Amino acid sequence: MTFQTQTFAFDDAKAESFANRFVGTLNEAAVAIMTSLGHRAGLFDALSVHPGLTSTTLAERAGVTERYLREWLGVMVTSGIVDYEPEDGTYTLPPEHGALLTRAASPDNMAVTTQFICVAAAVEDELLDRFRNGGGLCYHHYDRFHEVMAEDSAQLVVANLTGAILPIVPGLIERLEDGIDVADFGCGAGRAMMALARAFPNSRFHGYDLCEDAFDATRMQAEAEGLSNLRFELRDLSSSDPLGPFDLICGFDAVHDQADPKAFLRITKRSLRLGGVYLMQDIGGSRDLEKNIENPFAPLLYMISSMHCTPISIGQGGPGLGAMWGVETAEEYLAETGFASVETHRLPHDPLNAYFVAHD
């Protein structure tokens, strides 16, 4: 057998441009890791309280060691995130940057999302093995995943439930005020259900998830608050019998990770009361790669899909749809599992996700 070797013209300018771009990639990766660390240590919050702090004063306010803090500040200053005044050795977080990096800025705190980079990087060795053997991963492989996911969801979903998300279903808020039965299938930390249980005391709320440790802390908090209209239960919703019946079932970023997404959706439909509504939020990308090229979040979403969503599904014996299974696939799956009508919404507060309203 004879193979022909194809010769490619080498463009020196293109190579130099790519090298310069990749220097930026390495630096931005470093910034993402240090931003995650700064968020967890409360450094942005401490910097935002008062401009012009020395590293010693900032260390005292944040409760960290000054020597390590100085190195972190080196990253923040050279990346242009924090301003530095060499004459008096003071550091200032510009308010325009603080508006996107502090807890007070929530739900716009982008530092929260940088934590996914570190969570994913922690399983690199495990994932390298899976690349070679085709196996999957389990939730226990991911340190802090539930914690980070809950914090991210608190910004995109929980903070916007009553103001932006629930209103896409006409009359839903009024029905919640009167009193209906609601469930969150794949509830994670359960913060969405707890927020609704507080807001609508006449309705009854149920959270179901495969991982009990995900919602344990929220369940204890709900019990401490005396929220008698909220309960949580461990349940594998890919192989469960129908639950309910419920007037409203929510599914926030849950379907594509399932062992059997279509079975999950069939159980969801069969758990709805006649006339019930399924409100689903999932990644708003396309299943067609070429349609995602202009999406500014696409590399991040594909990374999360590669490092978490796909191996988690495969680890349960699932198809490994991944986070970028696409709006098109989501709409098809909802129709194929028996939902009579499906509406797809894009909401101004959330550039990452699509919201689906499916009627029984």
Describe this structure in words.
By secondary structure, this protein is α/β, with parallel strands linked by helices. It folds into two domains: 92 residues, Arc Repressor Mutant, subunit A (Orthogonal Bundle); 240 residues, Rossmann fold. It contains 16 helices and ten strands. The chain has a seven-stranded mixed sheet with strand order 6-5-4-7-8-10-9, with helices on both faces. Strands 1-3-2 form a three-stranded antiparallel sheet. It comes from Sedimentitalea todarodis.
Largest sheet entry: 7 strands, mixed
Q: Tally the helices: what do you get?
A: 16
Order of helical and strand elements: HHEHHEEHHHHHHEHEHEEHEHHHEE
Q: Identify low-pLDDT runs.
A: none
CATH superfamily label of the largest domain: Vaccinia Virus protein VP39
The name of the CATH topology of the largest domain is: Rossmann fold
Rg over C-alpha atoms, rounded to the nearest angstrom: 23 Å
Give the domain tally: 2
Distance between the termini: 59 Å
| CATH class value of the largest domain | Alpha Beta
Which term fits the overall shape?
A: globular
Which class of secondary structure composition applies to the elements? alpha/beta
On the 0-100 scale, what is the average pLDDT?
Answer: 95
Q: What's the β-strand tally?
A: 10
As a percent range, the share of helical residues equals 40-55%
Concise structural overview:
Residues 177-295 form the Methyltransferase domain. The protein has helices at residues 12-41, 43-49, 55-62, 66-78, 95-98, 111-121, 124-133, 145-156, 161-165, 172-178, 191-199, 212-225, 261-270, 289-292, 298-315, 327-336, and strands spanning 53-54, 83-85, 90-92, 181-185, 204-209, 230-234, 246-252, 272-283, 341-345, 353-359. With 360 residues, it is an alpha/beta fold.
